[in-house]
Amino acid sequence: MSYKFKKPLYSVLILILILLINVIFWGLNRAYYNQLQTQLNISEKTGISESGLQNITEKLIGYLTLQEDNLYILEEVGGETRQIFNQREIDHMIDVKNLFLLSYGIIFLLIAIFITRVVLLNKRNEMYKMYEEVKLSFLITIGLSIIAFVIFRTNFDWFWEVFHEVFFFNDLYLLNPQTDILIQMMPLQFFLSISQRVLLSFGIMHFFILLITKIGAVRYDKKNRSRHS
User: Fold this and answer.
1) Please, are residues 18 and 107 in contact by the beta-carbon 8 Å criterion?
2) How high is the pLDDT of residue 186?
3) Residue range(s) defining the domain that contains residue 212
4) Rounded to an integer, what distance in angstroms lies between the CA atom of residue 147 and that of residue 145?
5) Domain assignment present for 133
């Protein structure tokens, strides 16, 4: 395969890697979860105390990071101690955990690919290619980010529905906001805020990686020239 075709392929893989890293970071960010729960008055809406919400959040994130085996959580709701999640909610979280596990695997695989690629490019004195790939990836990111920003501002519920239809193969995500704690704890506004954070940090991280690879390519080129002068 010629580099003409390899370049956009590597650029897309770079984009996927940076995006997944940011999704995982914000998707498992306990502090931001707690901040959003306070901003959205989740305690009042669910009848669960702030400390109770923090405990549930801790166990949810623990479940997604394989630190918890199950989601059997007892907590006080409206003055009555009860099991927080019903079977439908638990089954949906199993699907969510599987998506996270897939993301972990893709991240580790892509990191291995790019470590190998850097080593090979270094041996071939072609480090400039890495910068070219990151630059193309960043340009694609700018375009996608503009589209995502417009969608988030105008019709996020449509985006969220399409996301679930693409990544989930059942309707377990269709929860009842009147009775299901999971959707009460994480309403649409909750996910909109997290998605906006992901989009922002995704662009910033991508930009800094572009700068780093640019500086690295320039320094490597100068060093390589001095060796052969």
Assistant:
1) no
2) 96
3) 3-27+87-224
4) 5
5) yes
